[in-house]
């Protein structure tokens, strides 16, 4: 799920949830909800902002497979 990929990439880049929120302009509570699968359908605009901070193409966050994510 998208929340798992965001969390994995965020941790691989040694970013706290607060830092990802600050850099992306997305509320920390909203990011937390995504990572905890409480918010499973974030807008494309939000995904784009998160992907930009994590330095990955959007499709990496949106893929439905659960393979290993390169760091």
From TrEMBL:
GO terms for molecular function: DNA binding; DNA-binding transcription factor activity. PROSITE patterns: HTH_CROC1. Keywords: DNA-binding. The keyword ATP-binding does not apply. Residues 6-61 form the HTH cro/C1-type domain. InterPro entries: Cro/C1-type_HTH (IPR001387), Lambda_DNA-bd_dom_sf (IPR010982), TransReg_Diox_bact_type (IPR050807). GO terms for cellular component: cytosol. It comes from the Bacteria. The keyword DNA-binding applies. It holds the Pfam family HTH_3. This is Helix-turn-helix domain-containing protein. It comes from Alicyclobacillus mengziensis.
């Amino acid at each position: 799920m998208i929340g798992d990929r965001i969390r994995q990439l965020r941790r691989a880049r040694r970013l706290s949830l607060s830092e990802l929120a600050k850099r992306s302009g997305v509320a920390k509570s909203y990011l937390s909800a995504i990572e905890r699968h409480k918010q499973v359908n974030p807008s494309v605009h939000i995904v784009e902002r998160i992907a930009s901070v994590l330095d990955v193409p959007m499709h990496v966050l949106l893929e439905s497979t659960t393979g290993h994510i390169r760091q």
